[in-house]
Write a structure and sequence with these properties.
The chain has about 625 residues and is α+β, with helices and mostly antiparallel strands. Among the domains are: about 25-190, Jelly Rolls; about 480-620, Heat Shock Protein 90, CATH 3.30.565.10. It is built from 16 helices and 20 strands. The chain has helices at about 5-25, 65, 175-215, 220-235, 235-240, 245-270, 280-300, 305-330, 340-355, 365-455, 460-480, 485-505, 520-545, 570-580, 585-595, 615-620, and strands at about 30-35, 35-40, 55-60, 60-65, 75-80, 95, 100, 105-110, 110-115, 130-135, 145-155, 165-170, 170-175, 485, 505-510, 520, 545-555, 560-565, 595-600, 610-615. A six-stranded antiparallel β-sheet has the order 3-2-5-11-8-9, with no helix packed on it. Helix 3 (about 175-215) packs antiparallel against helix 4 (about 220-235), helix 3 packs parallel to helix 10 and helix 4 runs antiparallel to helix 6 (about 245-270).
């Protein structure tokens, strides 16, 4: 996270590197440092100082806010120097100007050699750009030479910062090769680094604003993005050396941007703490309009005073927002995040340095760090917020996937429970209907068949009625759904089969275990009884057998029943007809319905073997 020490070290290094570059000045032995000059006032169109203008000596650097209070116009600076010996490498002499504000022209021995922008309003903004002007050899004279700088600047009362008021730094004259590297380093430190930070901040701000716009619940991201964009626009003066507005409009634009920075900073601090203030929602936009009105009413003569007042008010608002944020976070039982602490600390230090710079000369390191502190801190905070959001989205995605899995599991469980309830309801309805049908068959049809058995004069009709009555009773037993012990079922089957075989003169043998604890469902009992009856009918009617053996047992969790006779067997052509009828085919289908199988092994003259296998777990299940 942003509090990581290595990240702080990188941040500090990023600020100290350009400062170190700035500290490297033109210190070569051949460098001539110019720290005083003669000055005269002039006009924008003139190529020489105004006639009769007093000549005043000044020390360089010369800041108009101190040496020329209220002055606004053109100042000519004249310095003289002795032409040094020609450089060994034959390079030109160059004039190094660390700071000139705001537009300027350079004359060598009366000849114009360099133009530094517009000399009439709106002036070119050169205040932050170091200058390097080559001195043509053709214009240099042996002995004494004169350099004149025509500088156009603004008075302190018209600008919001001392750094934008007119002025000129100390000068240095040295071979071009000696000062070229210094100029490159100084430009990178004073312009390149701030411009890079501003561009990075602009891109990051747009990205963060888009994130906040997409994720509406993270509104603090949108406000941070707007804060970054507004602060990046404040450094537009580094990009726009040729202003598109007049001086007063440009100063007003900078002040309004500062109001936007305050608006977004306050809202970011409040939203990060989970607060929303109606006063802030309405008052901050109105304040931006009040800034415009107040600046216009103050007029050009008091622009600086109006800017300083608004700077104090806006700084106070941000300080109050910081206090509210910290109190709310602590009230929630948390500690202020390192992200906010970094931002607040960098803002406070930057504001303190810039405020001090309005009244005193800052060391080079502090002067360079002041405009870089807050942009670099904002970039680091933005990266930290993006990382936080990425982790939050990743955690939310994991939570969402877990929730979806739980929902799917719950939905599956509900669906299974619903199916079980439906199945149970259906089974209950079916069970009631079965019992009703069984009762109707037993009470109505059973009574009538029993009457026929006892009153019919025809033996054939009485026999058919008795068989129908037995079949009906079997069906009723299946409909009632009562389970049957396997031992009891084997007893019923043995009594019926052996009795029927004996009536037709066939010797019957029955082999089964004495005690079995398994149970059969009513359906399994009925279907197995019908299979046995069909097999017995086939033996009696078609086999010509004299002996039939039935063996029962349990093997590998299955109930096995084998019926074997010593009859004629089944010829292939007869077996085909039986499979298409209701004999063997019905036996096999009934076994299949019980998840078992019924195999028939037979050959002419070798008798027939019927093997019935039923799984007990299915056989013991309720019907």
């Amino acid at each position: 996270m942003l509090g990581d020490l290595s990240l702080f070290r990188r941040w500090i290094a990023a600020l100290l590197l350009p400062a170190t570059l700035l500290a490297w000045g033109p210190v070569a032995a051949q460098t001539l440092h110019v720290r005083s000059a003669l000055t005269q006032s002039g006009d924008a169109l003139g190529t020489a100082p105004a006639a009769g203008a007093p000549v005043l000596p000044v020390a360089l650097p010369d800041e108009w806010s101190r040496t020329r209070p209220g002055f606004d116009g053109i100042v000519w600076y004249r310095v003289t120097f002795e032409r040094p010996a020609a450089p060994v490498d034959g390079s030109l002499l160059s004039l190094a100007i660390e700071r000139v504000c705001s537009s300027f022209e350079v004359y060598l021995n009366g000849g114009l050699i360099h133009g530094g922008g517009r000399m009439a309003p709106p002036l070119t903004n050169n205040c932050h750009h170091p200058q390097l002007v080559d001195l043509p050899t053709a214009l240099l004279r042996p002995g004494t030479n004169t350099i004149e700088l025509k500088v156009a600047g603004h008075r302190r009362e018209e600008v919001g910062s001392r750094w934008r008021a007119g002025g000129l730094s100390a000068l240095a004259i040295a071979p071009h090769a000696e000062v070229e590297a210094w100029h490159a380093r100084r430009t990178a430190a004073a312009v390149g680094f701030p411009m890079g930070a501003s561009a990075t901040l602009m891109l990051l701000g747009v990205f963060m604003f888009a994130l906040g716009f997409v994720h509406r619940r993270q509104s603090q991201l949108a406000y941070f993005g707007a804060l970054a964009v507004a602060y990046a626009l404040l450094d537009a003066r580094l990009w726009l050396r040729q202003p598109f507005l007049d001086h007063q409009a440009f100063e007003l634009l900078l002040l309004v941007l500062l109001g936007l920075v305050t608006w977004t900073a306050v809202q970011f601090l409040l939203r990060t703490a989970g607060l929303r203030s109606q006063l802030a929602d309405l008052g901050l936009p109105v304040q931006c309009a009040a800034i415009v009105l107040g600046f216009v009413l103050a007029g050009p003569e008091r622009s600086s005073l109006a800017a300083q007042v608004w700077h104090a008010v806006l700084a106070l608002e941000i300080a109050v927002a910081v206090v509210v944020h910290v109190r709310q976070v602590r009230r929630d039982g948390e500690r202020p995040s390192r992200t906010i602490l970094l931002l607040v600390g960098a803002s406070a230090l930057s504001a303190a340095l810039q405020f001090a710079g309005q009244w005193t000369e800052l060391p080079a390191l502090a002067a360079l760090a002041a405009p870089l502190l807050l942009p670099v801190a904002l970039v680091l905070v933005g990266l930290g917020l993006a990382q936080q959001l990425g982790r939050a989205l990743q955690a939310a995605e994991q939570t969402r996937q877990q929730l979806e899995q739980q929902i799917r599991s719950a939905a599956g469980e509900i669906e299974r429970n619903f199916r079980q309830m439906v199945d149970l309801k259906v089974e209950q309805v079916i069970e009631r209907e079965r019992k009703r049908i069984a009762a109707d068959l037993h009470d109505d049809l059973g009574a009538k068949l029993l009457t026929i058995v006892h009153t019919s004069d025809s033996e054939r009709i009485s026999t058919l009625a008795r068989e129908a009555l037995e079949e009906m009773r079997l069906s009723v037993r299946g409909l009632t759904g009562r389970r049957v012990g396997l031992t009891d079922a084997l007893g019923d089957w043995r009594a019926e089969i052996v009795s029927r075989l004996a009536q037709t003169g066939i010797e019957g043998e029955w082999h089964a275990p004495d005690e079995l604890t398994h149970e059969l469902s009513a359906r399994t009992y009925v279907q197995t009884t019908r299979i046995l009856r069909e097999a017995t009918n086939n033996i009696i009617k078609h086999s010509n057998a004299t002996r039939c053996t039935v063996r029962c047992g349990i093997a590998d969790g299955d109930f096995q029943l084998v019926i074997e006779d010593n009859g004629d067997g089944i010829a292939p052509e007869v077996e085909g007809r039986l499979d298409r009828g209701h004999g063997l085919a019905s036996m096999k289908n009934r076994a299949k319905q019980l998840q078992g199988q019924c195999l028939v092994e037979s050959g002419p003259g070798y008798g027939t073997v019927i093997r019935l296998t039923l799984p007990l777990d299915r056989a013991a299940a309720p019907s």
